[in-house]
């Protein structure tokens, strides 16, 4: 048993370690191990206790302790040091003697020990012999027996740790510096000179033989060579130098001496002594010397003689040269620089190319090409003043001047005007650029920058690369980093280099005019923001500052062929008329070149749809004759566009003779023609009167149409209100199918994901699961550090590879991670928002929160969604659901094309079915097998006879399961529609089968009309069996988002339902007979747009109800809205923003744009419903109307305005007043204090902890789930640790950058945030850290 007597000032420590001592008292008697080797013994040694053996008496008299008491760590058994030399050669047997103390305390008579050396991670165990010191009994000598040691690392020395252990038991304590040094003579000494320079303590010798090498003297079995061989020169650099000398020549080789003194005065270059620089000398391998001057140009070998050895020369020759500068081209350029100079001369490549610099006057000229003997290219820098300057080549300190001609810096070119401001996509339109001093420009270019609008799909596939630029005077630009693309991205007055650029070289016409061709771009530019610049060497000019109109691109023009079947017959003296589209959008008639063979067809008129030109009087020759007819080709050139529209054949009416008989015939013919013309005039007058009567009929039809639209709106609205009242009564029993909070949060946080990332488990080996989970819990705790979280977010956002999609994903993961601490989450949101405001105030504050480009913007979206969920369920949800059902009901009342997704009843003109389709409503008696519905009681359901079978099944399911949410209904694909007639008459109906109508390459989908199903028929929805599934070369699935326009099978069959998508719309049967009727149908297609008005009038009340609920302050405004609006007002005040429009835009971007638009367009985020394409098209129009109502700017509407905006043109001003009143009322209400908001957030955090449980919450369970119906316990489905693990993936990806950011922050260093993150990395991923 052991006792410890501590010094008085160490008593508290001893008390604190009582538990450890107790364990030692138990362990020591049971084992034969000394107490120093037990856990905690080392710590106890550090306080210098007295070690007293229990079987010996304890003497309290200070002078009487004698041999019974030992003091401090020196009393413990310990191996102290290596006796003798600690340097050991490799591959040579050597003993190691160690000095140890106090081994007698082990009371072990056998003294059975082993020496252990740790070499390159491997342990080498050697038997040891122990003998005590006769003079001092406490000292022992441990001798490690003979052994050959070695290591593989390519290093001259290797320090190996040594320790001693009892055989097969424990280690004996060692001093910290107990190492032996292994050395290898061969490493780093590849030649004789290096070997001889080794330290004498190593005993290295140059061992001869067939393969000479440097070895330890005892390992050499060959003759030892005391004298080294002659030097060998491998290379010299450079191969030339100036006559004046001063060129540093580097000589590389082997055996180049053992010290600088060996070759100090024995190096010559081309016969001229070369002064060795001792500081740059490397033993045996490198000599650096400075050449002396030469009397003339010469060349020769480089020679080296080592002291006491032979002289050796190089195989390469060195030349003394006198470079001469002859000319510079061009001889002038703008003072802004950027001009590429070509300097020609003789022997310009002298010395190292890196030593050559060029100046024009005192301005550096950057070398941009490989230096040649006869020429070198450089780009001039910017000069402060205009004038003539001398071109100078600097070879180190030696200069070579170009005396004549001098290079002249001129005044900078300046652009004052540029026109025109439009171009077609294919470019090539001539752009005239006027200004001053333009003839000094060497390389003028026209640059188009494309800035893509960001969307979710784009965020998936694009990673934008930022390239910063520094802007100088006079429009100068420089770019720091270039990546080859198109050609090299150029940052010209832009904060970041755009991802897509298009460039076109221009031509200098004279000092005041440059002619450019607009660059060719792709069609994606039409939906993107563009900027256009002119690059004049290093100067950059923005097109928008040179013209009152911004430059824009228009769609390419389209021209129809003259005659697709044969050559066009032209009657001389007339004009040729061309038809097309978009002809005059971006070009004038003077710029259009029309050719007929080699002749020019003069353009007389150019409109949007027509081009008229006057051909030459005689038929021109063909330019590239093809075929046997030798007819000229008719071509039209519009910039880069070239249209070949067919061949032209002139009608030749001339004849060489005109006999009398022919003259008489002509007279008779003329009389007949006059009679015919008279008859035609009579017929024309009659037809004109008929046309006038037809026009009046059309006017009457339009008036009747307006009346019918009003009547139809009234009737449709009445019917819809009746249906909605029935639906409202149904809702009383079944309720609105709201999603639970878990599904709502997942769809808001992770839109576009088929399965929430939080539903996945931790994918890892079970043996590491516990360690990883502990690391993730530590990460959760680290996220509670505000400094760490803000540093983490800012560091990620500063990385180029951190895409907008990644930002939104990380924001949602952080939302889940902090969901149970919403007060802290709100504080982080406020901090990041303040940083965002400061960022936008410096640029354009009106653009803030416009898009989701940062983490804080997505955090705001999630925060609003969390705080307004209760308001959605209690207030706005009912109006939104009724509007959704009204839209669905109204759309389903009319035909919907299953292939093109166009509907008769819609608000979106792009999804409007413009054709008249004959249909009627059928009432079917539906029987359902299973699903809780009694098959013996058929349910009457309404469908259309033009519906496809899949559409019929979906409508029947909606009516049969109207009280069941969508996710709990059977899917239409899992059921077959069976038509039952009589007792045994059962027929399975399908979209495609052997009876489908096939016309050429078109196959029509089957409808109830096709099967001739009568009104009142009985049908049954039966479970689908494999034998009833028809795979007739195409699998048609209704409800897909993408219209099925592609070929469906190997035979190229294309499906159609109501209209053929790629052909002209078919006319109804009752209007096919008359050509006049067909022409009239084409002339007034806008008649069908009245269907939009009818749909709008029918839904007006439901839209008004929804907007009123959202924008009403009659009931309490959600606390989060008031709090956040006050926060925006405070931010505006802090940054001196007094413009009310800016504050209005901030509020609009934070609430309507960020939350309400998302909910209105996606009701599936809050309800358990399916939103079809045609319903989504209507909701998009309503959402856009709501967004337009929240903007302050007035929308100027005209004939070319989108029809969707024209529909609600009269309603938007009323809605705008509602929005302004809503914002004003919120501002006038009592401010929401931080205490109130924190209290509300704390309550939400408490009840939401069950939805996104932390590891601690998961252990405690949800005890308060019954207090709020909104949140439930989903700990089994939502894995909180998965969110943390997903976050850690980003930490791992940008680990070095995050650690660097934390180490650079003083506060973070004090809080040891970097150290904590390293601990997490070590636990989660076994990452090697600096711990």
Automatic annotation (TrEMBL):
It comes from the Eukaryota. InterPro entries: Ig-like_fold, Ig_E-set, IPT_dom, Plexin, Plexin_cytoplasmic_RasGAP_dom, Plexin_RBD, PSI_Plexin-B, Rho_GTPase_activation_prot. Residues 456-481 are annotated as: Disordered. Its main location: membrane. Gene3D superfamilies: GTPase Activation - p120gap, domain 1, Immunoglobulins. The keyword DNA-binding does not apply. It is a single-pass type I membrane protein. The chain crosses the membrane at residues 664-684. It is found in: Cell membrane. Residues 230-321, 322-410, 412-554 form the IPT/TIG domain. Keywords: Membrane, Receptor, Transmembrane, Transmembrane helix. This is Plexin-B1. It comes from Ataeniobius toweri. The lineage of its organism: Eukaryota, Metazoa, Chordata, Craniata, Vertebrata.
